[in-house]
Amino acid sequence: MVLANGPMTALGLTDPRDWRGSEWAADVLPHLAYGVITAATYSVTDVPKGGSRLRITLSCHHTDEEVAGLVDALTRAKKREGEAPAESSSR
To answer: What's the whole-number mean pLDDT along residues 68-74?
Structure first.
């Protein structure tokens, strides 16, 4: 909140020391909501310990050949993953 209100305070546009409770609530609640939503988003997209996740972003600038090459590479990688020997556990 300091980063959001600091410049406005420095310019003399507002002074949080003079705010009423309703003005504080109007300022705090959006920041709190943003924090809750951000934390929830991070927890959903978090990769489990020992796991992995591949994120791919395509754009209109990728050619059909590039996309086809990506699909081919992912298909080959998935086949290799299925052929990988099982890990042995030491006792």
So the answer is: 94
